[in-house]
Specification:
about 35% helix, GTP Cyclohydrolase I, domain 2, four-stranded antiparallel beta sheet, alpha+beta, about 120 residues, 4 strands
């Protein structure tokens, strides 16, 4: 039985961007993560040991966004996916959307977002 665990709209403050002011001032980042995995064992056992501990996933995402510094959303998203897959061997695919709602573009917009995914090889 395949299932998807969603962590939606995680909000973190980080210092990522190609512009000097983004690196100096920082900004809010919103992250959606979708993890695909077999949930049959967890459904039968009702045990956290048989699934993904999303408290640990949230803490990992927070650490990456708040402590690391990269220039591109592509790099940030790749780092998130690589580390989530490394932490969670049960996950067969991970997808992420990273949004920057305060990009200094000189005009109004809701956000700039990047969506990508990785499957276990």
């Amino acid at each position: 039985m395949t299932g998807k665990i969603h962590l939606k709209n995680m909000a973190f403050y980080g210092y990522h961007g190609a512009l000097a002011e983004e690196n100096a001032l920082g900004q809010r980042f919103l992250v959606d993560l979708t993890l695909t995995l077999d949930i049959a064992d967890a459904a039968r056992s009702d045990s956290l040991a048989d699934t993904v501990d999303y408290v640990k996933i949230y803490a990992l995402c927070r650490k990456i966004v708040e402590q690391d510094r990269v220039r591109l959303l592509e790099t940030l998203a790749n780092d998130l996916l690589d580390q989530v897959l490394a932490l969670c061997p049960r996950v067969t695919e991970a997808a992420v959307v990273v949004r920057k709602p305060s990009v200094p573009l000189g005009g109004p917009l809701d956000c700039v977002a990047l969506e990508t995914s990785k499957s276990r090889a």
